[in-house]
Amino acid sequence: MTPNNEKAPNVPENPEDVSVADAIRSMQIRGAGLIARKAAESLGRVAESYLGDSPAELKKRLYDESDALLAARPTAVSLRNGVFAVMKAVDDAGENADVPALRALVMNAADVFCHNSKQAVSEIARTGAGLIKDGDRILTHCNSKAALAPIIEAHRQGKKIEVFATESRPWRQGYLTIKDLSDAGVPATLIIDSAARWIMPTIDLVFVGADTVCENGDLANKIGTSQLALIAREMNVPFRSCAETYKFTPRYASGNEVPIEERDISEVIDPAVLPANVRVRNPVFDITPAEYISGYITEDGIIEPSRVGASIRRWFGDASSIY
Ligand code: RI2
Question: What is the per-residue DSSP string for 226-269?
Fold first, then answer.
């Protein structure tokens, strides 16, 4: 998959020929929720396929796989939390657990995480659809399954809505979004990223996804998200992020602490055509300050950015040191 093809990037659910970590790194597997589930499943498969009888060896394989997965992409905390949800079972098992016990614990933890992750999107769909009115025009960015779920649910409920999707250069995930919407029968229009301020006067709601939600309510999401938020604020358009709570983290007090992934410049331009002395940068995410966000739509309802910290502590307690 290359980002500059004329066609939209195709995202296979189960790339056969590379490791899950490599598929996440190369964005064959992408989307904050999906990378978390695929990482959890990968750990489950390591446990399932282990045929030896050494708990220490199985643990080492699991920790090696965790390290590879965590190194694949740095920004989305969903990946860390998907890995954590499974590896916590290993840590909690204690020193005396034998291989069958470890295998069962790991596979169960992976299944539970994946089930809860999908369930969370269904809850977000229900809650988010309640915020969408008949006749609304909604703007979305990149390709977020969590952000599309309420839109598709509102359409299913019979609300007449129209969606505008930014192209989301350089990977053009906007094409995936209009395909998802088309498949669901939702009227959709693709716009180039720089048309955001042109379209905003006609927009009623902005729904985006989330890769990481910081303790102070700041949002890390696909590059360009913060520009949309700024324009939405200028024009008094509600700007909401749809985020399963495992995208919340106590790891980062604010957006300043989030590592922003920069990818190869070949995703933006053929390096061979670059004039001398010209640099190109390709940041993948940006930070939208909490004050620009009207609310997080989660599986626990709508959470105000100022309440994210309390919500994190309720779920993760003092676990921040192990993320
Ligand atoms: P869901 C994506 O990142 C986008 O930033 C999107 O908003 C976010 O993940 C959430 O996606 P990337 O993997 O979990 O395309 O809502 O870089 O599908």
Answer: HHHHHHHHHTT--EEEE--GGGB-SS-SSGGGSPPPB--GGGTS
| CB distance 214 to 188 below 8 Å | no
Start-end of H helices in 76-194: 77-93, 99-129, 145-156, 173-184
pLDDT at 4 > cutoff 90: no
214 is catalytic: no
Q: Report the nearest-CA residue for atom 5 of ligand 1.
A: 222
Instruction: State CA 35 to chain mean position distance.
Output: 8
Query: Residue of the nearest CA to atom 2 in ligand 1?
Result: 31
- pLDDT for res 11: 45
144 lines ligand 1 (CB under 6 A): yes
**pLDDT per position as a tens digit, 27-45:** 999 999 999 999 999 999 9
Contact 299, 146 (CB under 8 A): no
Tokens encoding 111: 């299944």
Which residues partner with 102 through β-bridges?
none
What secondary structure does DSSP assign to 97-119, as a single string? Answer: --HHHHHHHHHHHHHHHHHHHHH
* Residues forming a β-bridge with 145: none
Q: For the whole model, what pTM was predicted?
A: 0.93
Residue 89 CB neighbour total at 10 angstroms: 22
- Residue 197 burial (10 A CB sphere; 0-12, 13-18, 19+): middle
Q: Which of 160-164, 288-292, 313-317 is predicted least confidently?
A: 313-317
Residues with Cβ within 8 Å of residue 18, at least 6 apart in sequence: 26, 28
For 172-218, how does the pLDDT look when each residue is reduced to its tens digit (9 = 90+)?
999 999 999 999 999 999 999 999 999 999 999 999 999 999 999 99
List, for residues 83-112, the tens digit of each pLDDT value.
999 999 999 998 899 999 999 999 999 999
Q: At what angle do helices 55-70 and 77-93 cross, to 10 degrees?
A: 170
For atom 3 of ligand 1, which residue has the closest CA?
31
